[in-house]
Amino acid sequence: MADSEVTVRLLGEVLVNGDALPDLLANLLIALSLAPDRRLPVYRLAEVWPDGQRPTDIAVHKAMSRLRDYVPLPAQRNRYYRIELDDGSVDADVFVAGVKALPNTADPAKMNELLELWDGDPRQHYPVTRKYWYRVYQARAELLKKLAHLSPPDLRSLSALATFLNHFPSTEIPAGLWFAASESGRTPGRKRVLIVEDQIGDDFASMLAPRYDYVILRSLADWHKFVVDEPLDFDVALVDLHLTSSSTDMEGIVVLEYLRDNTPIPTLLISGAPLPGDTEATRRQYKLSGVFLKGPDNSLPTLPDSVERAIREGRPRD
């Protein structure tokens, strides 16, 4: 069988040219396909037997003979087996290479293609193969990081995102991605927070993730684009006063004015330094639910409680 005739799917149920394999053969194929040089000794192949069984060498050879019906597999040599497949014929290799090749700038279309490669969580389907997946799941973690930095409109354009997220335990997924998985942008039963912060929005998000969905906008340009493309469907907003590296830009005022004049959203102003002038006057001017100074190392230890209070009490009437 020529390797050009074979297409191997590992990112979900294991398939060869569309045909499902028995679990034992699937385990062997995963181990060989993901091993360095696609080559393993007999004793290592014996480790992927289901249910912790320890087969004899003869049993391993018989199983490998069955696997040869599906994929190009030379006879064992020096008690090693090697599988002959092109990188492009194995979806896991395509995924790893695709993530590595992603540009620094956002490429939602390419990201969506990579998401579409997944049809399940193979570590759950084939648990005895877990140690072979490190390289693939490291690439998945890198892709998740890149996804978390996409703008909300770009996230919503990913048709494969919701299905991809549902393949994995929620503890493995950045909470901020879940909002994009539903049409309304909300996870049922959770409030939604808008974070407008140029430097440490991810830190805010990590504090809020156990209780809330959130969207992070990292610049005034992101804000302007979001207002045009998306509804402001939020229960509370956190707005940094300075949205560039300068401590004098005051770009957050643009966001505060829009929220005050066009929405009923309770808003908390965040700043790294005391506000010029009368803080109470600023609070009244922009109808703020609170003004908070970042603590040491940009910390906001009371942030979750402050967000909860702002949602509960709503925007001040004065």
Automatic annotation (TrEMBL):
| InterPro entries tied to this protein | CheY-like_superfamily (IPR011006)
Source taxon at top rank:
Bacteria
Q: What is this protein called?
A: Uncharacterized protein
Give the organism the record lists.
Answer: Actinophytocola xanthii
